[in-house]
């Protein structure tokens, strides 16, 4: 058997040798020694731990954070103490800022290198380090509250926000009907509350507490719903006779009267210049205030009275709830529902779109259901369900924080503030002696008003302001007391 002739590695096309290296010097018989192969095996073994006393080399193109010389940035590790005479306040502030910037850019645990003098010829970055650091020590400073092990906060737990348990104002509202299917309270963007009492509509200015009588429908009719336009001073009023009146609240003048429904109009929802009205005749009419016709389209699908209507915040989807236990979602161009949900086992009046997440819809069921359900209309799926223990009459979402409030009827007659998505209770508010059938939220998003068959309207500070959780509403405690709205 002939001896095998060593083959130069140069003949293997996948190697690219530097021109300074002699190809003839690389032969197959120049394999690693047994000790070298054992060393390579230890390095490839995942369980192999390096000795902390030896330098740890990183990738040649990725510098080591802890081994780099950040002094070249001019960011000193820590500020020097200010002198007693206070003359170097500016330099002390600059040093503190440099320390904060350094910690934000390079992490709080970057080793200090005070013993190495600055040299313009030295490299900023190093490619080896003398210490090993955990992964979380180099996480971006935006995640300083995240625990690297399981997401728990490393800092002190934030104290739960305190919600006042008593209303700051109570208004007597004589003849406020105890009817689950009506919607008799709404709060305008201009801070004016509209309330339907019997056959009249009254306006209460939250800034001045002035009460104005807007209209009187006469003894042959009564108010079943009120709804403010998103802009301007127009108020829609739905009546027991199936008519819809549009009033200009700034001058207490009726603009027009629209027909189309055969029975009472108990639900209203605005979308820009489009007004949707839901009726006991099971239909929803779409009315364009710019058109001469009383309505431009009719939505059919419910098998019983329509008692809940809400447009999404982008005005693309309309959610409707009915006494047929159904929740429907319509788009701008459909005359049939695009989504149908039948999981509720009682009437669906409470409907609220989240202002924080597109397509997130909350709905509440009546006495036989008692549940709040959450839906993702983008994926046509139910997200979660919680049994509240009482009839759900209304829902409204905070625009300042990811929380919502629900009002309830049988048997607790309470108001609950929830934190979403955990649905933990922040507060349970009591005071009404009848079902809390009516709910509206102030334009600043901090205050809610609730109405009940006990003929009272109660004002509660439940949500924080956008900037501070301790700032009270501008219409808050300055109007303490009890007055009559008519």
Keywords:
5-stranded mixed beta sheet, Cdc20/Fizzy, anaphase-promoting complex binding, repeat, mainly beta, cell cycle, 4-stranded antiparallel beta sheet, disordered N terminus, about 475 residues, Methylamine Dehydrogenase, Chain H, WD40_repeat_dom_sf, globular
The whole-number mean of residue pLDDT values reads 80
Q: What's the number of helices?
A: 2
By CATH reckoning, the class of the domain at 169-214 and 305-484 would read: Mainly Beta
Overall number of strands? 31
By CATH, the architecture of the domain at 169-214 and 305-484 is named 7 Propeller
Unreliable spans are 1-13, 25-30, 130-154, 469-480
Largest sheet descriptor: 5 strands, mixed
**Strand order within the widest beta sheet:** 28-29-30-3-31
Strand content: 25-35%
Judged by helices, strands and strand pairing, the structural class is mainly beta
Radius of gyration: 35 Å
Q: Shape, please? A: globular
Q: Superfamily at the CATH H level of the domain at 169-214 and 305-484?
A: YVTN repeat-like/Quinoprotein amine dehydrogenase
Please characterize this protein's 3D structure:
By secondary structure, the protein is mainly beta. Among the domains are: 56-75 and 96-107 and 122-143, no CATH class; 169-214 and 305-484, YVTN repeat-like/Quinoprotein amine dehydrogenase (Methylamine Dehydrogenase, Chain H). It contains two helices and 31 strands. The chain has helices spanning 34-44, 89-106; strands at residues 56-57, 128-129, 169-172, 185-187, 192-197, 200-205, 211-216, 223-228, 234-239, 244-248, 253-258, 265-271, 274-279, 283-288, 297-300, 306-311, 317-322, 327-331, 339-341, 348-353, 360-365, 371-376, 381-387, 392-397, 403-408, 415-419, 424-429, 436-441, 447-452, 456-461, 481-484. The strands form eight sheets. The chain has a five-stranded mixed β-sheet, with no helix packed on it. Strands 4-5-6-7 form a four-stranded antiparallel β-sheet, with no helix packed on it. A hairpin with a 3-residue loop joins strand 29 and strand 30 (456-461). GO terms for molecular function: anaphase-promoting complex binding; ubiquitin ligase activator activity. Pathway: Protein modification; protein ubiquitination. Residues 1-30, 146-165 are annotated as: Disordered. WD repeats lie at residues 216-257, 299-340, 429-462.
């Amino acid at each position: 058997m002939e001896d095998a002739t060593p083959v130069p590695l140069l003949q293997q096309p996948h190697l690219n040798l530097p021109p300074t290296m002699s190809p003839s010097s690389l032969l197959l018989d120049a394999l690693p020694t047994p000790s070298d192969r054992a060393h390579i095996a230890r390095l490839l073994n995942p369980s192999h731990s390096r000795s902390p006393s030896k330098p740890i080399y990183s990738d040649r193109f990725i510098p080591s954070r802890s081994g780099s010389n950040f002094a070249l940035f001019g960011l000193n590790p820590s500020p020097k103490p200010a002198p007693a005479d206070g003359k170097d306040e500016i330099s002390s502030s600059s040093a503190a800022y440099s320390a904060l910037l350094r910690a934000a850019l390079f992490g709080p645990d970057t080793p200090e290198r005070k013993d190495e003098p600055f040299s313009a010829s030295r490299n900023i970055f190093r490619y080896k380090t003398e210490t090993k650091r955990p992964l979380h020590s180099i996480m971006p400073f935006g995640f300083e509250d995240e625990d690297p092990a399981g997401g728990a906060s490393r800092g002190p737990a934030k104290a739960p926000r305190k919600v006042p348990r008593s209303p700051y104002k109570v208004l007597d509202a004589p003849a406020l009907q105890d009817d689950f299917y009506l919607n008799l309270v709404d709060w305008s963007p201009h801070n004016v509350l509209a309330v339907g009492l019997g056959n009249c509509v009254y306006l209460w200015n939250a800034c001045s507490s002035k009460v104005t009588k807007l209209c009187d429908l006469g003894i042959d009719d009564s108010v079943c719903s009120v709804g403010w336009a998103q802009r301007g001073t127009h108020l829609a009023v739905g009546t027991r006779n199936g008519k819809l009146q549009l009033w200009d609240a700034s001058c207490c003048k009726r603009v027009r009267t629209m027909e189309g429904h055969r029975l009472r109009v108990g639900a209203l929802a605005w979308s820009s210049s489009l007004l949707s009205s839901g009726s006991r005749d099971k239909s929803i009419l779409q009315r364009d205030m710019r058109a001469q016709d009383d309505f431009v389209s009719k939505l059919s699908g419910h098998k019983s009275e329509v008692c809940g209507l809400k447009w999404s915040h982008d005005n693309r989807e309309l959610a409707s709830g009915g006494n047929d236990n159904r929740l429907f979602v319509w788009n701008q161009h459909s005359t049939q529902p695009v989504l149908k949900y039948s999981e509720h086992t009682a009437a669906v009046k409470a409907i609220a779109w989240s202002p924080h997440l597109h397509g997130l819809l909350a709905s509440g069921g009546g006495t036989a259901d008692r549940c709040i359900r959450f839906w993702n209309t983008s994926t046509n799926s139910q997200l979660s369900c919680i049994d509240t223990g009482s009839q759900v009459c209304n829902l409204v979402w905070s625009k300042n924080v990811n929380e919502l409030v629900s009002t309830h009827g049988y048997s607790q007659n309470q108001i609950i503030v929830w934190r979403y998505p955990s649905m933990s209770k922040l507060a349970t508010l009591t005071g009404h002696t009848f079902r809390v059938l009516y709910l509206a939220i102030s334009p600043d998003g901090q205050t809610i008003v609730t109405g009940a068959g006990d003929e009272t309207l109660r004002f509660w500070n439940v949500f924080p302001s956008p900037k501070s959780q301790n700032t009270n509403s501008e219409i808050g405690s300055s109007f303490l007391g009890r007055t009559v709205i008519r």
